């Protein structure tokens, strides 16, 4: 079956530090990959996605590249802000007809001033 | 345009009680989903619907029922609540199926079963 593995948190950084959150996946087909973000007290929002190998998704300064050879989709940001503090979820979808998602367990990011 | 809304926001039930969670979307989306979020478990799909009048089981459907009588609403029912159903429940919707269609999430319902 499909699965997504994320690094455990919390990840604690100072403002302007570089961020990497690791995500690897197992899938039977050719999945699409997503990063969702959940701010405190809110639902999830799509942050970025990539639908095929070597695609790079980007949004709000965050980037992730779909690496088929390493089955990875690591999230990066060059300079984090306090407002980036949230829980980040990596997810995949590989069913051709439906967009059901398989989520990782989430990684909490805490950014201090 | 409210997006996806969920009612109620919080609820406390006693074991054996029943309740219904309501999800509504005003984006004319065909697909709707119910997830539960537990600490250290991420989100897990309970049930989903690919159109009015249709429902299907997800990863963790036991103990829940759903109905999609109207396109804009997706109801999640607990017939006999158990402490293991203490969780945060999220509803989501998408215009279509497949990875090209983003899922939009509601704010969640925090349910505690004592």
Low-pLDDT residue intervals, each spanning 5 or more residues of chain A: none
Portion of residues within helices of chain A: under 10%
Treating each run of at least 4 consecutive H or I residues as one helix, how many helices of chain A? Answer: 0
Average of pLDDT of chain A: 92
Write down the oligomeric state: heterodimer
* Interface with most residues: A-B, 25 and 27 residues
Strand content of chain B: over 45%
What's the Cα radius of gyration of chain B? 13 Å
The assigned structural class of chain B equals mainly beta
The ordered string of helix (H) and strand (E) elements of chain B is EEEEEEEEEEE
Extended strand count of chain A: 12
Tell me the distance between the termini of chain A: 41 Å
Question: Roughly what fraction of the amino acids of chain A lie in strands?
Answer: over 45%
Name the helix and strand elements of chain A from N-terminus to C-terminus, one letter apiece. Answer: EEEEEEEEEEEE
Number of helices of chain B: 0
Shape, per Cα inertia axes of chain B: globular
- Coarse morphology of chain A: globular
